[in-house]
């Protein structure tokens, strides 16, 4: 799971997300459970300290490589994680059972930029350095498209479906 896509979780491939989530077809994740936890200081995922826990994962990752052995596409699919978001300051939490998701990430080695298209249930956490600027943590049910540049800046390109503002729900 990458730093901000719970798609890896919910499908994060990804948070922090974190919490979804690379290409001749090669290695696949075996679908076994790997619990994950992210403890984000105030101002990073929400205005308050946010704990994100993912349990009971079942995801599969397939990578595709170019002729030089570099990853060009990753597909991350499966049940994903059951996610619990907790406002550490108040103890208030909210849990979402995983309903599955699929993320396809393509990598451009020339620009060192990746583009991810995620469908299903995906948690996305945006930091203050991202576009739009966080802190924000949102659970999307539908489709999300984002890019990550060579400097690690996430840019939310588009969303469709429903969105739940986790920070507002826990505030």
> Span between N and C termini?
26 Å
| Overall pLDDT score | 82
Secondary structure category: mainly beta
Radius of gyration based on Cα positions = 15 Å
Compute the number of strand runs. 10
Shape: globular
Q: In which range does the helix fraction lie?
A: under 10%
Q: Hey, roughly how much beta strand do the residues contain?
A: over 45%
Number of helices: 2
Q: Order of strands in the sheet with the most strands?
A: 3-4-7-8-9-10
Low-confidence stretches: 5-32
Listing every helix as H and every strand as E from the N terminus to the C terminus, the arrangement reads: HEEEEEEEEEEH
Q: Biggest β-sheet: count, sense, barrel?
A: 6 strands, antiparallel
What does this structure look like?
This protein has 171 residues and is mainly beta. The protein is 5% helix and 49% strand. It has two helices and ten strands, in the order H-E-E-E-E-E-E-E-E-E-E-H. The protein has a six-stranded antiparallel sheet. It has a four-stranded antiparallel sheet with strand order 1-2-5-6. The chain is globular, with a radius of gyration of 15 Å. The two termini are 26 Å apart. About 16% of the residues have low confidence.
């Amino acid at each position: 799971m990458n730093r901000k896509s719970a798609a890896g979780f919910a499908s994060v491939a990804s948070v922090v997300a974190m919490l979804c989530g690379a290409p001749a077809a090669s290695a696949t994740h075996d679908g076994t459970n790997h619990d994950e936890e992210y403890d984000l200081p105030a101002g990073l995922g929400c205005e308050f300290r946010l704990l994100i826990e993912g349990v009971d994962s079942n995801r599969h990752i397939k990578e595709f490589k170019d002729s030089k052995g570099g990853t060009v596409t990753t597909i991350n699919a499966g049940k994903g994680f059951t996610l619990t978001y907790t406002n550490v300051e108040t103890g208030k939490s909210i849990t979402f059972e995983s309903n599955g998701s699929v993320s396809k990430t393509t990598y451009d080695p020339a620009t060192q930029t990746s583009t991810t298209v995620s469908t299903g249930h995906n948690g996305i956490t945006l930091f203050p350095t991202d576009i739009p600027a966080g802190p924000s943590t949102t659970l999307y049910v539908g489709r999300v498209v984002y890019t990550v540049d060579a400097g690690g800046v996430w840019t939310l390109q588009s969303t469709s479906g429903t969105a739940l503002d986790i920070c507002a729900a826990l505030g």
